[in-house]
Specification:
Elements: H1 9-19, E1 23-27, H2 31-44, E2 48-53, H3 62-75, E3 80-87, H4 90-99, E4 103-106, H5 120-135, E5 140-145, H6 162-171, E6 181-184, H7 201-211, E7 215-217, H8 225-234, E8 236-241, H9 243-269, H10 278-300
Parallel strand pairs: 1-2, 1-8, 2-3, 3-4, 4-5, 5-6, 6-7, 7-8
Helix pairs in contact: 2-3, 2-10, 4-5, 6-7, 7-8, 9-10
Bound molecules: glyceraldehyde-3-phosphate and zinc ion.
Length: 306
């Protein structure tokens, strides 16, 4: 572990389970998103899971983003888990373990292309392999069973079946130990919803009763606050948020660009040279992301729990 505040996510979600709240897991894609995530956690005195998704690899080298995150973790005063989100293959998991991540998700529900479903047996095989590697390093593991999606809107939605999930957590055991938390399909989807979503907190309750392990809500953006709270009461201990951060960034960026356009028009009219400064455009978006993340931490009940 690179910092005394860097912890396996297992510790954070177990505390959340015992305390009846959820830890937010927020996606970082660059320095500013990582800074916003840490700033919100510090401000709210909240435990934190900061995550990098496998798809970031198509944008930049994840090692570069990880370096920023580990620097921030080093200086941080709140407990933080650094988590790989939606790892799709054993090779990718190994790359992130090598970077020093304290937590990984193996998303065995889909194949490496992120689209084609894996069979139950394939999901079991890859998840078990990851548990063996990660646990030997003291790193926590999240797995997924079922297929995320909006009920009545997306094709291929498969809500997590409690009996299948119970069999899954048994079948993936390595050396008597299973995953540390399980991502479940309960009517959420990644990105924004079409209309009002139907979130099955009754299904969360059934799963929690049967499995007695921390459950994870993916696609936390756009889930109505009361459904988030019902989900947490029923057994959700980690809520993933990505799109909400992007929305906060984009909305503020548009405002800043509009303000700049006005300023430049005035400068042009006065015959003055325009002043360009990337920092003055980006800094307000970072503040807006911090506010959006802090609001979620208060909603999840993790604020004040660091
Ligand atoms: O794994 C990441 C998420 O599940 C985030 O979903 O973009 O809908 O917030 P979201
Ligand atoms: Zn997700």
């Amino acid at each position: 572990m690179k910092s005394k505040m860097l912890v396996p996510s297992k510790e954070l979600v177990q505390d959340a389970k015992a305390g009846g709240y959820a830890v937010g897991a927020f996606n970082a894609v660059n320095m500013e998103t990582a800074q916003a995530i840490f700033a919100a956690a510090e401000r709210e005195n909240s435990p934190l899971i900061i995550q990098v998704t496998q798809t970031t690899m198509a944008y930049t080298e994840p090692e570069d983003v990880a370096a920023v995150i580990f620097n921030l973790a080093e200086r941080s005063s709140i407990p933080v888990a650094v988590h790989l989100d939606h790892g799709r293959s054993f090779g990718v998991i190994m790359r992130f373990l090598k970077m020093g991540f304290s937590s990984v998700m193996i998303d065995g529900s889909l194949q490496e292309d992120g689209k084609t479903p894996r069979t139950y047996e394939e999901n079991v095989a890859v998840t078990k392999q990851v548990i063996e590697a990660a646990h030997s390093l003291g790193v926590s593991v999240e797995a997924e069973i079922g297929r995320l999606g909006q009920i009545g809107q997306d094709s291929g939605v498969a809500l997590t079946d409690p009996d299948e999930a119970a069999k899954f957590v048994e079948d993936i055991k390595f050396d008597g130990k299973t995953v540390d938390m399980l991502a479940v399909a309960i009517g959420t989807r990644h990105g924004l919803f079409k209309g009002k979503p139907i979130i099955r907190s009754d299904r969360v309750k059934e799963l929690a009763d049967k499995l007695d392990m921390p459950l994870v809500m993916h696609g936390g953006t756009g889930v109505p606050d009361e459904d988030v709270q019902k989900g947490i009461e029923a057994g959700i201990c980690k809520v993933n948020i990505d799109t909400q951060i992007r929305v906060a960034f984009y909305d503020r960026l548009l405002e800043v660009v509009t303000e700049k356009e006005k300023e430049y028009a005035e400068a042009d009219a006065a015959g003055e040279p325009r002043k360009y400064d990337i920092r003055k455009i980006i800094a307000p978006t970072r503040d807006a992301m911090t506010d959006a993340i802090a609001e979620k931490m208060r909603l999840f009940g993790s604020a004040g729990k660091a």
